[in-house]
């Protein structure tokens, strides 16, 4: 945190979007900044800072087209929650895909853990950690599992490969093909 002074006010900067005024009230950083500018300067600052503020937020985007997932040549249909693209990773609803692979899936709501087992392979994921365990050995995930509308979404490549399957992703076609071994 750093202090910054306006004309006759003092503010504490919390982050790019919020500051505290002298009374301890949260105030929009944009409002504080724009109130201290002449009218013409505020218009230019809106264009410049609008880009900076927008870029500071974490973004999860739904692909322009829906990602299609095939397991052993058969298309997986998603009812309420579609796959998400997070950065360069595809997250899919866990239960539908992995039960179609022949895995048993259980969810421990108390400890927020997901268990998937197929053959001699067992996976345990904590929803609030980036570490998954495959047959008791820790593996670092490059993205966290997510919860959307009551469904757990997991990084498809890591989980499918951990359950001994081959994963092929065609980015131009938005298609994931999983072949269990």
User: What percentage of amino acids are in beta strands?
Assistant: 35-45%
- Work out the count of structural domains: 2
Q: Multimeric state of these chains?
A: single chain
Q: How many β-strand stretches?
A: 17
Q: Using the 3D structure, state the CATH architecture of the largest domain.
A: 2-Layer Sandwich
If strands are numbered along the chain, what order do they take across the biggest sheet? 9-10-11-12-13
CATH superfamily of the largest domain: Copper amine oxidase-like, N-terminal domain
Helix content: 10-25%
Radius of gyration: 23 Å
Task: Quote the distance from N terminus to C terminus.
Answer: 54 Å
Report the mean per-residue pLDDT as an integer. 75
Give the overall silhouette.
Answer: globular
Per CATH, the class of the largest domain reads Alpha Beta
How would you sum up the major sheet?
A: 5 strands, antiparallel
What is the succession of H and E elements?
Answer: EEEEHHEEEEHEEEEEEEHEE
CATH overall fold name of the largest domain: Copper Amine Oxidase, Chain A, domain 1
Structural class label: alpha+beta
């Amino acid at each position: 945190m750093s202090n910054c002074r306006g004309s006759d006010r003092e503010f504490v900067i919390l982050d790019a979007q919020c500051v505290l005024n002298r009374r301890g009230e949260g105030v929009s950083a944009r409002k504080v900044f724009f109130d201290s500018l002449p009218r013409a300067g505020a218009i230019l600052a809106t264009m410049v800072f609008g880009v900076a503020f927008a870029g500071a937020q974490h973004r999860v985007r739904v692909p322009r087209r829906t990602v299609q997932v095939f397991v052993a040549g058969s298309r997986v249909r998603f009812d309420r929650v579609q796959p998400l693209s997070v950065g360069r990773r595809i997250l899919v609803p866990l239960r539908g895909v992995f039960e179609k692979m022949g895995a048993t899936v259980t969810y421990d709501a108390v400890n927020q853990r997901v268990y998937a087992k197929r053959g001699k392979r067992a996976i345990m994921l904590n929803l609030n950690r980036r570490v998954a365990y495959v047959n008791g050995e820790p593996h670092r995930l490059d993205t966290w599992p997510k919860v959307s509308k009551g469904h757990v979404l997991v990084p498809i490549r890591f989980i499918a490969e951990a359950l001994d399957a081959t994963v092929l992703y065609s980015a131009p076609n938005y298609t994931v093909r999983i072949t269990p071994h």
